[in-house]
Amino acid sequence: MAYRKLGKNTGHRGAMLRNIVTSLLRHERIQTTEARAKELNAITEKMISLGKQGDLASRRLTLAYLMDEDVVTKLFDTIAPKYADRQGGYTRIMKLGLRRGDAATMVIIELV
Known about the structure:
3 strands; CATH 3.90.1030.10; 4 helices; single chain
């Protein structure tokens, strides 16, 4: 499976994705570039799936990835139960247009 480098080295890319996933789960809707949103989509789906399992091991895996304990609590207590009947497809990407500075395609990614 190919992945996007997003113009960052490995450590920077990993930290950036962790921050963006944390922000998405905190605010439930963020604006970013299309390439970042597509990478973010897969990671967010995995985090919500872990939240749906609800056991201690899942919580520890999620705590190891996300940056904020409050977001983990929100994920396990409010976000994951909303998707109990749903088998994936927890996020939606809507295109906004081009960014003025560098013409990057901007999108809004949100939880469904």
